[in-house]
Design goal:
This protein is of the alpha/beta class. The chain is built from 13 helices and eight strands. The chain folds into two domains: 243 residues, TIM Barrel; 78 residues. Helix 5 crosses helix 8.
Length: 363
């Protein structure tokens, strides 16, 4: 795939929500995936290719519970990528030189507070090296607990699947993409390969989820082993840990929470996030269960009004991202053409980051 030199276009796109890690935290591909042979074998490089070919100039790596592995994965291609930490606080002229013909990568991560509430965090001065700024001990403790919980959850799912007559090895599941706990929502292809009579190619992912995976998920959340590590009561602890680490945090794909404008306003007022991801183009209809586009746009606008209403008290920054994952059989495009769903633009990103840097500096 060619890398197109399209960096002089003022309509550059920005995508602050991408995934590249497998569930075992490696930047690699699931060998069972039908698209595996069509890619480079390096999911970080495939993300870079996709960004280059869609006019996306800025990407944030936001894998679940991990910051270093995915960020260093994209920085492993310095001919195509410059880390935001390398331009953090630099004068514009120097910044432009460092960015010349390269994509800007911002370090981040995502955590799951509950199935309908995910949180994003970004760390502008994080370098990924031992010599640079590190995430705080408090934040690392939270991420370690989330990983331990995810491992227990995978064991629970495998036991329940075995009871239903479906046998899978833990190692093969850990090679799956990290969308969802330990790739649980992504062994769709393994079901099709191993149990074609039950799950033919004509059977879609949603059917598998509703009939098998979601009921197990409900059992898990009712089990004695389940611990909701990040809840509304402890979001402030997560926020404090992110701030200690020189970062900012907020809510991912807000539409999926299914809140009314007033409920959304209350959530923002109670938890005081730095940002909310209102622009989520590629899966926006799925997140609203097939709602008509006009309803989706109306919901976004109502959330924008909730954000605007808080400005006299404090400013919530608005971000956008595609939730791109190169493992999917249909490659999700990164942030696309101009529309209310398409997320941040080049000039918006720098306004956003100026406010982020100012906010971090005040701490």
């Amino acid at each position: 795939m060619s890398l197109m030199p399209i960096y002089d276009d003022p309509s550059y796109c920005v995508d602050l929500h991408t995934h590249i890690l497998a569930a075992n935290s490696t930047v690699s591909y699931d060998p069972y995936h039908p698209r595996a042979e069509k890619n480079t074998g390096d999911s970080a490089l495939d993300l870079i290719h996709q960004a280059q070919n869609t006019g996306t100039k800025v990407i944030a790596t936001t894998d679940y519970n991990h910051i270093k592995e995915s960020y260093m994965g994209v920085l492993g291609h310095p001919e195509h990528v410059v880390g935001y930490h390398e331009i953090f606080g630099k004068p514009k002229a120097e910044r432009d030189t460092l960015m010349d013909k390269r994509i800007v990568a911002l370090a981040g991560l995502e955590v799951m507070a509950n199935p309908d509430m995910h949180l994003l965090a970004y760390f502008p001065n994080y370098t990924g090296t031992d010599a640079g700024p590190q995430i705080s001990e408090n934040l690392q403790t939270i991420l370690d607990r989330l990983e331990d919980q995810r491992d227990k959850e995978l064991d629970f799912y495998l036991d329940k699947l075995n009871e239903r007559g479906y046998e899978f090895e833990k190692d093969e599941i850990l090679k799956q993409p990290e969308r969802g706990p330990a790739g649980i929502n992504n062994f769709y292809y393994l079901f099709q390969e191993r149990y074609p009579e039950d799950w033919p190619e004509s059977c879609d992912r949603n059917t598998l989820y509703e009939k098998i995976l979601n009921p197990i998920g409900v059992e898990w959340r009712l089990s004695g082993e389940y611990e909701q590590i990040i809840s509304i009561a402890t979001i402030n602890e997560f926020a404090e840990a992110v701030h200690e680490s020189g970062g900012v945090w907020g809510y991912a794909h807000c539409l999926s929470m299914g809140l009314s404008q007033s409920e959304f306003s209350v959530l923002l007022d109670i938890t005081r996030p730095d940002l909310v991801e209102l622009y989520y183009p590629t899966e926006i209809l799925r997140q609203t269960h097939g709602a008509a586009p006009k309803k989706v746009v109306a919901t976004i606008q109502s959330y924008e009004m909730a954000v605007e209403a808080l400005k006299p008290v404090y400013e919530v920054l608005i971000t956008g991202g595609s939730d791109y994952c190169p493992y999917y059989s249909y490659p999700l495009p990164l942030t696309g053409k101009k529309s209310i769903e398409s997320g941040m633009k080049w000039q918006d990103f720098w306004i956003f980051m100026d406010k982020v840097e100012e906010r971090i500096g005040k701490r």
